[in-house]
Amino acid sequence: MIILTTIKPKKIFVILGITALFAVMLILMWQIFAPPSTLGLNVAGYEFVFNEEENSQFVLAELAEEIRWVNFDVPYEALKKAMQLEISARNDGHENVNWIEMLSYLACKYWGNWSNYRENDLIALAERLKTGEEMRQISEDMEQFGYFMRRYGAILSGFLGECEDGEYGLLVYFPIATGYRFSHSDDFGHSRSYGYNRRHLGHDLMASVGTPVVAIESGIVEVMGWNQYGGWRIGIRSHDGLRYWYYAHLRKDTPFHTDIAEGESVRAGQVIGYVGRTGYSRTENVNNIRVPHLHLGLQLVFDEAEKDGYYQVWIDLYAITRLLLQNRAAAIN
Ligand SMILES: [Zn+2]
């Protein structure tokens, strides 16, 4: 009351005018300096945001969500079809058809239940994107879209890209060199008895001793040596830091390829070691695995503190290894 009575009406208009001018300036400043508008998939670690400059591509940004378990149950058929759709769309000049986004969209549509998967859903979705619709708009009302993007994106983001020959396609390789026999089944989560009661957090590829093992994805050799469970094993971290590929039970005496060294980088498709049956022993270089096989693991590292911690995120690789079968490397190096 005191203020109102002491300030004359004319002055109020001046104050209002200045305030309005200030507000307009703020809006203009925001327009000029604000980052490209992003679709808020905001929780805590890595995050996928819609990058307007790239037009319709979700990009991995800083994350904040604590992810302690990832149930990756996208069927092989869906992975394969989605991948093919992205590759063919790219070759036709459609940059906005992205398999990770499409799979995340379908996971939302199915409420996470992939037994509802129908190939026509994927085809129809790719068609919508090709006619210019944007995933940002299509997925707008899907509250779980970011949830699946973060998980599927962490697993699959290094899989597709421009190959050395300039073609767009699969950059990752099947871990057994071409021409070598193997067999496998869906064995993720089966119980294991050595040491303590553990679940099998990987995928076994049965193959003969000496079968060349190739790097699935390019990265840095983070770990190389003996472990009482894995025996001679190699751990390779993808260049984006998100994926830790683990290859275990390698051959006694000569487990590793001579070109491989801890801290050095490896290319996808490069021979890194040989199948064996070492492990389940505190003593180094001991064969204690009955049936020779490659134990393959994929750990997602959302939080470096949990890399060797309690909440390790390991992925079921059965569908992924089937997908990788399309790309087998020759053991020439
Ligand atoms: Zn295993």
Fold and architecture overview:
It is a single chain. This protein has 333 residues and is of the alpha+beta class. The protein folds into 2 domains: 71-170, no CATH class; 191-324, Glucose Permease (Domain IIA) (Distorted Sandwich). Helix content is 28%, strand content 21%. It is built from 8 helices and 15 strands. It has helices at residues 2-6, 9-33, 76-91, 99-109, 119-130, 135-138, 145-156, 318-324, and strands at residues 45-51, 57-64, 160-162, 168-170, 191-192, 198-199, 203-206, 212-214, 219-227, 231-238, 243-248, 265-266, 271-274, 293-300, 313-314. Strands 7, 9, 10, 11, 12, 14 and 15 form a 7-stranded antiparallel beta sheet that branches. A two-stranded antiparallel ribbon has the order 1-2. β10 (231-238) and β11 (243-248) form a beta hairpin. α3 packs across α4 (99-109), α3 runs parallel beside α5 (119-130) and α3 (76-91) packs across α8 (318-324). The longest helix has 25 residues, at 9-33. The chain is elongated, with a radius of gyration of 25 Å. It starts with a helix and ends in a 9-residue tail after the last helix. 38% of the residues are buried. It binds zinc ion (ZN). The site of zinc ion (ZN) has 4 residues, from loops.
